[in-house]
Amino acid sequence: MCERMLDHETVLSLLPDRKIDAHKGDFGRILLLCGSVGYTGAAALAAMGALRSGAGLVYLGVPESIYSIAAVKLTEPIVFPLPDREGKLAAEATRKLSEILGKMDAVLVGPGLGQSDGTFAVVKWILQNYNGPVVLDADGINVLCSHMDILRGRTSPTILTPHEGEFCRIAGQYPVNRIADAQILAKDIGSIIVLKGHNTVITDGTNTYINPTGNPGMAVGGSGDVLAGIITALLGQGISPLQAAACGTWLHGAAGDICAAEIGYCGMLPTDMLNVLPRLMI
User: Fold this and answer.
1) Average pLDDT of the chain?
2) Structural domain boundaries of the chain?
3) Which CATH superfamily, name and number, covers 2-11+21-281?
4) pTM for this one?
């Protein structure tokens, strides 16, 4: 197995060029399914993480109950409401999603969605009906804990971004050897695993990147939502799934390191990281 430590030079070499005559369609159309009542911030942070990472068009689908909040909070993404039940996505949301899914270059499901029968129905439907890359984060992972066969049966790329608690829920144990255990899980479910934490591990089971960036100031709610948005944006721009996950992880941590140097660990916010992300991509 091949293991490689990430660095800025490697990341920059993998980012796509932005030609002088480019238009927004050249940099990906991505769909984000995020948020629920009480968790509008997760949707906003994921969407802005995607935009700050160069996505051309970001479509953000949210439960109808929070649509008015998300639409006011966000000006750059294309925000639209989806059927919900008790503040979380309902299974009926798939009808509306079927109208746009085929136009998307990548899909993110999970930040702030909450766990419900409707959430599970939407996640399952996306995985079974979308032939492009999907990023599963937070509750997009949690609702699948007892349904790993859905992932094993998928032929298109899937990226999971678990912290150690979520890893335990899907693997049945906490990672003892983070690299080896992430590789085993990736092979078992046929997905790319981004095992978050100190020295985040990114692996498809055979090829593995280790990320040295990041710091304790990033241990704050919303940080993972930004990461999920970054990875999805890079997928939409045509970077291969493993490399998109690796580059996104490095950029996210490096943005946090800039913030730590400028304002310190205590009180650093995910929005601070969003503001410095573009500096790292030139």
Assistant:
1) 97
2) 2-11+21-281
3) Ribokinase (3.40.1190.20)
4) 0.98
